[in-house]
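The authors assume throughout that readers already know how a fold can be written as discrete tokens. The format is easy to grasp once an entry is in front of the reader. For illustration, here is how one protein appears when written out as sequence plus structure tokens:
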Amino acid sequence: MIGAIAGDIIGSVYERDNIKTKDFPLFQDSCFFTDDTVLTVAVADAVLNKTPYMDPARKFGQRYPDAGWGKSFKNWLNSPTPNPYNSWGNGSAMRVSPIGFAFSNEHDVLVHAKLSAEFSHNHPEGIKGAEATAIAVFLARTGHGKDVIKERVATTFDYDLDRTLDDIRPSYSFDVSCQGTVPEAIIAFLESTSYEDAIRNAISIGGDSDTLACITGGIAEAFYEGVPKEIWDKVEAVLTPDLWAIIEAFYETYQPSIR
């Protein structure tokens, strides 16, 4: 989970100012956490406390009204009767990484990925994006190689993972859909040599940089068995105490070997 959040923070300054290179400062003074982090923590909170996923999403979303919510999700947050709004947006995929770390079998991962998506993102593509990301995290965490992860995700979810970053980068532009974000984020992981390299890959293609790096970062953390200490420390320094407390509780419960 910390890998996803670090990706969000690192990518935050490039979302509206895309770069097409891997050569950039990993953290800048202007880096910040966005809605991707807030909802990732909300999913972790729901897993820890065994509550419906909607409840902490509403609680933390309303606590951080300026985190960068999309218009539809912001309307959902503020609605007295929140209902799913058939979204295929990548918000379902960027928040799902804790599920890939917390559950012990693929069935439960898929069930909970769907539950974590459908309270807002109940379009089939929105659900699929969450499921594909969560399964990639789970397979990476449980020792599967990149070839297996690629084949399973491509076969199960019908994503084209045969492209390269060099194929994608020249023409890729801002895209908030799951179908236009999740495959690219997974390819960024597949071409990586380390956690940091995965984040640099994701941001280098442009587009919705913080969300791409968030999705890639969760998978990369699982595969590379953690993130460098200096990245962990930087995330702690950027986050608020209430968000950080949930992260620490999640790692103590589900990822003590990484912490």
About this structure: Residues 2-14+31-254 form a domain with the ADP-ribosylglycohydrolase fold fold (CATH 1.10.4080.10). The chain has one domain: 2-14+31-254.
